[in-house]
Specification:
By secondary structure, the protein is an all-alpha fold. It is built from ten helices and no strands. The mean pLDDT is about 85.
Length: about 190
Amino acid sequence: DLETKIDLDLAKALVARVGNDLPHLMWEVRKANMLRESGEKITPQQIQKALAPINELQPTILAKALMKRDEKALLKAAQKLKSSVGRDETSLVMWTVRSLTPMVLSWAAVKRLQRGGSPVSLISQRLGISKWKIEKVLIPESQLWKGDDLIPVLKALSDAEQAIFAGAQSPWWVLVSSLVGSVRVVKTPPIR
């Protein structure tokens, strides 16, 4: 509805920077559209001016490492996240838990509904998430997890939140060590 042209490479860079959440992307394009001269394409300079400063990484870098089940990548991502943001530990942990928990719960819900034979349209309707996001994002991500593999991850997020409420000296350490522990549990087959 904006009748705006944007270069494909620029659009890809925008998605890489802000993620694939369509309302967020639309908002960033709308802001850049306001800065453009009529009739011209949106330029990288207009996108840069329009974007809110994103000096900090997002907690989703931890999700990427979790999906790989890579303890080393998870530790590196955690260190990178902590050093890139200007937040105190409590705020950082709450932000991270509040960002990752809905993602992990979505993976679990999609997995459960798929296991029950629900078609994509029903999964979309039940979760209130677009069919596109279900098909292109959540199904591929949820298929990386087997059975109850997400339970240790949810427990790790819950433990970190509880550490804050209990006044733990370093809730960030609780979060990171719990997430690394959840990856170990998932990677280690059960003893028979």
